Amino acid sequence: MSARGRAVAALDVGGTSIKSGVVRDGDVELLPGVPSRSAADRDTVIDQLVTASAAAVDAAGDDLVGLAMAVPRPFDLERGIPLLRGLHKFESVYGVELPPILRRRAGVGDHPIHFAGDAEAAGVGEARFGAGAHLQRVLTITLGTGIGACLTDGGEVVTAVGDAVVEDLHERTTPAGRADDVFSVRGLAGSLRIEPAELRTAAGDPAHRAELESFGRRLGTFLAPVLVELDAEAVVVGGGLASLFDLFGPAMAVPARRAALGTRGPLLGVAALAAF
Q1: For strand 7-13 and strand 17-24, is the pairing parallel, antiparallel, or unpaired?
Q2: pLDDT class for 184, splitting at 50, 70, 90?
Q3: In whole angstroms, what is the distance from residue 125 CA to residue 122 CA?
Q4: CA–CA separation, 91 and 9 (whole Å)
């Protein structure tokens, strides 16, 4: 191992993009992200995961201590098996045991492989190193292809409060439908009557300002009782829609802040959760 210290090859695997990098001494060396072909056939999806993992492993070099991967749920985290169905992503690799493939094809070898939920990775990253670092109890949500949620207390994941399972937030109902369908890229695009690919460009159009503020109000109304139920001080908003936070965040009317770490957050978080 070199003088630069222990290195974790880290991936954040999303429905629209795969981010990767090397986490070393609390910092991230980001590698170029790639669009995620998550709806493609089995071989294409596996090839993408192998290629991204191999790049991170190679960048870690002799300092490599393991591979840590943030993944969308449902997922068998212990065995490294995707279990997604009906979510329009990664269905072609349902039931595929990934670790043997990554060891053989991505150069991981005998190093440990750790999987964590993407929402938990983002939440731990922001709670320990980012927007929630000075707060005790934080709810981090990720707004992307769906809505993910992670509650942390002192930087440690809290999976449930009473009967409320934090990661099930996406299943809750709202007046406009299921939270996962409403508070997501496709939900916001639908309310603007545009295609999801047009969202970032359209968000800058003043004609859409009222609808973006309405999105923020609806999100805040949905989260207000959740914050009370979970005894959280504030919500940190991450994911793809965090880039639009300035347009909808002020209308939320709950203690809210934008995620501070961007793509670095989930990589820092999954490396911390791996604790190699």
Answers
A1: antiparallel
A2: very high
A3: 5
A4: 25
CA-wise closest residue to 222 among 260, 185, 257, 176? 176
CB atoms within 10 A of CB 62: 8
**Three-state SS annotation for 74-100:** CEECCCCEECCCCCCCCHHHCCCCHHH
At residue 16, the pLDDT reads 84
In terms of domains, do 98 and 139 share one?
A: no
Q: What is the arithmetic mean of pLDDT over 46-60?
A: 97
Q: pTM here?
A: 0.93
Residues 143 and 111 in one domain: no
Which CATH number does the domain housing residue 256 bear? 3.30.420.40
Q: Which domain holds residue 188?
A: 134-260
185-234 tens-digit pLDDT: 999 999 999 999 899 899 999 999 999 999 999 999 999 999 999 999 99
Per-residue pLDDT at 1 exceeds 60: no
Considering its fold, how many domains does the chain have in total? 2
CA distance 151 to 227: 10
C-alpha 207/C-alpha 209 separation (Å) is: 6
The CA-atom distances, in angstroms, between 213 and each of 78, 198, 208, 242, 259 are 41, 18, 9, 14, 19
